[in-house]
Design a protein that fits this description.
By secondary structure, the protein is of the alpha/beta class. About 45% of the residues lie in helices and about 15% in strands. It contains 10 helices and 10 strands. Helix 1 crosses helix 7 and helix 4 packs parallel to helix 5. The radius of gyration is 19 Å and the shape is globular.
Length: about 280
């Protein structure tokens, strides 16, 4: 989902030459395969969009989660250091427990509640451990034109039902993958043209926060449907993975250091829904 938008967004960078293997073409949990690929390509920048992102699935497939989310980033970091490449590693708001009561900054202490968050945090630590040049980018509640996501699920449900139930006690920062890709492009440009420091963490998401219930309401309003949204609690919709109550992100550090302003989530969502409808 993010990788496809990144390819499109970065392709217009002057002098850019992009290699984008699929997960079937390059298994990042296989050290030998990673080493051979990085040695052959000798990249300047590596962006890791590979992850096992099925939060509930991670609870039943803990070994797979550990391989892809924790071991794989370490393999990339080791190989990147050997080639003198910058590794940009994508991480998640789910490394936090959601109990702060305010948006999380990069300095806040992680405390993941589920296997997905725990393995993603291990991946961050693996990247930092090998001592090369790296940037860790944490993001939140991604949606885009490709792959399954919350926004597309709500669109599908409101086509079939007059009323849907959505949890109202989970809050985050909805983020359009195209906006995230443009922010990463801005970060790369800043890195190439200035003294932007490496070995640091940035939070990147569309501005503001919403509950799942509020996000569903806005989706339905924007597409002009009459579907009623009924708020329910997480206890009424039990799932295998415990998730943070409010994992919204403070993006002020990223905006301050790159001078790149991210759109409010409502504006980005409206843009996505218009674009998505035109492509259907």
């Amino acid at each position: 989902m993010l990788g496809s938008d990144l390819i499109e967004c970065l392709d217009s960078l002057p002098g850019a030459e992009i290699l984008a293997p699929t997960s079937s073409e390059l298994d990042i949990s296989h050290k030998g395969a990673v080493d051979r690929c990085i040695q052959k390509v000798s990249p300047d920048i590596i962006i890791n969009c590979a992850a096992f992102t099925d939060v509930d699935g991670c609870e039943s497939e803990k070994d797979k989660a550990a391989l892809v989310n924790a071991l794989g980033p370490g393999n990339l970091a080791r190989a990147a250091k050997s080639q003198g490449a910058l590794l940009i590693h994508m991480s998640t708001d789910y490394i936090f427990d959601g109990k702060k009561g305010a948006p999380y900054s990069e300095e806040d202490e992680p405390n993941p509640l589920n296997t997905y968050g725990k393995t993603k945090l291990e991946g961050e630590r693996s990247v930092a451990h090998f001592g090369g040049d790296w940037l860790i980018l944490r993001t939140s509640w991604l949606y885009g034109a490709r792959r399954k996501n919350f926004v597309k699920t709500i669109l599908g449900l409101c086509e079939k039902h007059d009323e849907i139930s959505v949890v109202s006690d989970q809050r985050g920062s909805p983020t359009y993958t195209r906006d995230l890709a443009q922010a990463i492009r801005a970060l790369i440009q800043k890195h190439l043209t200035s003294d932007l420091g490496c070995r640091t963490v940035f939070h990147i998401a569309n501005k503001g926060s919403a509950s799942r219930f509020e996000l569903a309401q806005e989706i339905i309003r924007l597409v002009g449907k009459d579907t009623k949204v009924r708020p329910i609690t997480s206890r009424e919709w039990p799932r295998p993975a415990e998730v943070p109550a409010d994992s919204s992100l403070d993006i002020s550090k990223f905006e301050r250091e790159t001078h790149f302003a991210l759109r409010p989530w409502q504006e980005a969502l409206a843009d996505f829904l218009t674009t998505f409808a035109q492509k259907k």
